[in-house]
Amino acid sequence: ELTQREREVLALMAEGLSNRAIAARLFVTERTVEAHVTQVFQKLDLPASGASHRRVLAVLAYLRAGG
After folding, report:
1. I need a labelling partner for 32 at 20 to 30 A (CA). Which of 4, 7, 39, 50 fits?
2. What is the pTM of this model?
């Protein structure tokens, strides 16, 4: 289960925002956003792969869940 902050980060990813833009919107550091994104990828079981783009897959999972 994603935390509230992880869901917020994922929703902003779905809007197409970069990590820098997400950090500015949430008033946190880029490093904090990167940590949340990493947790989202892990919790959604999206391992690093040269064949797929995890950010897109995470957003698709968000949308399928009713985002």
Report:
1. 50
2. 0.88
Decide: 62 and 10 in contact? Cβ < 8 Å.
Answer: yes
Q: Which residue has the tokens 């919790």?
A: 43
CA distances from 38 to 31, 33 (A): 10, 9
pLDDT of 39-61, one tens digit each? 999 999 988 887 779 999 999 99
Number of Cβ atoms within 10 Å of the Cβ of 40: 24
Residue entry with tokens 């959604």 = 44
Q: Which two tokens stand for residue 23?
A: 């950090």
Measured distance CA(32)–CA(28) in Å, rounded: 6
| Residue 56: how many other CB atoms lie within 10 Å | 11
